[in-house]
Amino acid sequence: MSGMHRFLAVLLLALAAGMAGSGVAQALDLTIASPFPGVAIFGAVEVRAEVSPPGASSQVTRVEFYLDGRRIGSAAAPPYRVVVDAGQENREHHLEAVAYGPKGPLASAELRTSTLRVDEVIDVSLQQLFVTVERHGDPVPGLDRDDFEVYEDGVRQRVTDFERGEVPFTAALLLDASASMAGGRLRTALDGARDFFTSLSPLDEAKLLLFSDRLLLETPFTRVPAILTIGLSGVEARGGTALNDSLYLALKRLETRTGRKVAILLSDGVDVDSVLDMEDLQAAASGAPSALLYWLRLRREEEGEKGFQISTAWRDPEGHRREMDQLRRAVTASGGRIATIDRVDQVKDALSGILRELRGQYVLGYYPIHVQAGAPPPKIEVHLRPRGLDVRVHRGDRGK
Question: If you classify domain 23-112 with CATH, what class do you get?
Answer without folding.
Answer: mainly beta
